[in-house]
Write a structure and sequence with these properties.
The chain is an alpha+beta fold and 115 residues long. The chain contains 2 helices and 7 strands, in the order H-E-E-E-E-E-E-H-E.
Length: 115
């Protein structure tokens, strides 16, 4: 084999290696699971919204079930989550605040608006 063929083969092998490394790193799955409850009465908040953001871009989301339980599985890149429900203050959690948590208990506080 000549030098040009050897260099071409090595270049192809390196590109394939990098493609698989980058592909596997970007497809890592993250799971967020837990329950959403009211701060005052500790009752579950059904159908609250859980939204994943990458800075300001919405990238994924889900909602709690009728018992306040939720599960979000995503392989998208994100920086933080927001948990929302009508009449409650929006809660923002960064990735570092929820890292290594198997089952979250998310507490929402009522938003008092005086008219």
């Amino acid at each position: 084999m000549n030098l040009k063929t050897i260099i071409l083969k090595r270049t192809i092998i390196i590109h394939l290696f990098l493609f698989f490394i980058i592909g596997s790193a970007s497809s890592q799955e993250f799971q967020l699971k837990g329950i959403i409850i009211d701060a005052n009465n500790k009752e579950a908040i059904p159908f609250a919204t859980i939204i994943a953001y990458n800075n300001i871009e919405l990238v994924d989301g889900t909602s709690a079930d009728e018992n306040g339980n939720f599960q979000l599985i995503t392989n998208k890149t994100f920086t933080h989550f927001e948990i929302r429900f009508i009449g409650y203050k929006t809660l923002r959690l960064t990735f570092s605040e929820i890292e290594n948590k198997k089952e979250l208990v998310i507490v929402l506080h009522l938003s008092l608006i005086h008219i």
